[in-house]
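Today's session is about reading a structure prediction critically. Students often jump straight to the picture, but the first step is always the sequence itself: look for stretches that repeat, for charged clusters, for runs of hydrophobic residues. Only then move on to the predicted structure, which in these notes is written as discrete structure tokens rather than atom positions. Here is the chain we will use throughout the hour.
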Amino acid sequence: MERLLNSYNPAARNVMCKETLSVGWDGSLYDCDFNQMLGLKCDHGAPGHLKDFDSGKLLSRRIVTAPHCYGCTAGAGSSCTGATA
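Below is the predicted structure for this chain, in token form.
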């Protein structure tokens, strides 16, 4: 974890959570597949379920983050959309 923290790159912006949502089998919405596996639903006023879908709120949402997010923002960046910067 220390290595990821020390490798944080603020220029790594092409990460999954900026352009993609993960949808659980029950319709729950997550900012990324890592958050889905950890049970961290979209939050901060954004809909957490497909039945409440609101594109405006989802586009302007604050993304739920945790220490695992450093994995996508380390070095040149890494995510399902590929390396960045």
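Discussion point for the tutorial: Residues 30 and 68 are 14 Å apart (CA to CA).
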